[in-house]
Specification:
Helices cover 32% and strands 24% of the residues. With 221 residues, it is of the alpha/beta class. Strand 4, helix 4 and strand 5 form a beta-alpha-beta unit. The N and C termini lie far apart (53 Å). It binds 5-O-phosphono-beta-D-ribofuranosylamine.
Length: 221
Amino acid sequence: MKQKINLGALVSGSGSNLQAIIDNIEKGLLDGVINVVISNNADAYALVRAKKHNIPSVVIKHSDFKNREDFDREMIDVLKSFSVDLVVMAGFMRLLTPLFLNAFAMRIMNIHPAILPAFPGVHAQKRAADYGVRFSGCTVHFADEGVDSGPIIIQAVVPAYDDDTEDTLAARILKEEHRIYPQAIQFYAEGRIELIGRKVRIRGSERILEAALYNPSLTVF
Ligand code: GRF
């Protein structure tokens, strides 16, 4: 029987990434178990998803605390009481304080809907679409004190088109989020992630073809 990694998920909203993680665990593709889901928003649909799969959930409203440290301390206590090894932020819309980051140093992952370091922060898909980029995508990274600035674990690239709206681009990106997040967690579960400075090495990962992608495609050269 393979060792399963104990996960704690932080959510604020719909929780489609949480669902992707749950589905891959249930399919036996991800060697993990979600011990607890924490939401700062009592109305998050992610809580309904957790309930459907009999995963314990706790609502911790940030507005109930007088400062960010106290809020984070409460989350740390809950995560520790559920023996969480790896924290996965799945659409969690709060910045973590150093207190939290130190409590789970390099054991906190986040997903962001852009190819970082481009378009960190909120409304990444709209800003990418409005900018007119030809490619965008998503990034799973370790959390640090900055906004979407920690060491990058895996990225997926998708094309962006001139007639893309925020919604069409976001949907294309989200599909890939649901693949790379479980994969990043599985790399961790397999003990293959090594941090060298701010670079992440995934032991035994294959190099992708050394070819470029073009959008629009080349017609002459
Ligand atoms: C995703 O686009 C994720 O990259 C971002 O917030 C969104 C959350 O979606 N951080 P969901 O709650 O997982 O459906």
